[in-house]
Amino acid sequence: MASRAARRKDTDNVLAREALAVPAVANDDPASFELLRLWAVDRSLAMSVCPSIEGEPADFGTLLADLFSHACERYALRTGQAESDVRASMFLAFACRFGDLTRM
Q1: Residue 97, helix vs strand vs coil
Q2: Which pLDDT tens digit goes with each residue over 86-97?
C-alpha cells in the first residue's frame, strides 16, 4: 500500500486548492445559495455548512440522498462503471461507515 505522501505526489497534478466553479444553473437563479463546502484533510472530511440552512430532519435526509445520487452518477461517468454497481458499492461503504461513526 502506498504511503500518504506517495499518494499525494501522484495526485498533485490532478487535485487543486482552487475553489470549484459555481454551477451555471446556480448563477442563473438569483435565489440560489451555497449549502456545503467539503475538504479532504489528512484522510478525514472537513466541512463548512451554511449557518442559515433551515429545515426538518427529513429535508436534510433528502439533501444527503441527492448528494449521494450526484456522487454515484459522477463516479460512474468518470470510471465507465455501471451506475447501479457504483450505487451498490457506495451504499455498502456508507452503511459500514455509518455503523462506525463516533460522533453521534
Answers
A1: helix
A2: 999 999 999 888
Cα–Cα distance for residue pair 68/87, rounded to 1 Å: 8
Query: Is residue 104 in some structural domain?
Result: no
What is the rounded CA–CA span in Å between residue 78 and residue 61? 26
C-alpha cell at 23: 454551477
Residue appearing with cell numbers 463548512: 48
- For the four alpha carbons of 82, 88, 19 and 29, in that order, the dihedral sign comes to positive
Phi, psi of 40 (to 5 degrees): -90, 120
* Residue 47 structural domain: 4-98
Where are the extended beta strands (E) located within the chain?
36-41, 44-49
**Which pTM was predicted?**
0.70
CB-count exposure of residue 28 (10 Å: 0-12, 13-18, 19+) = exposed
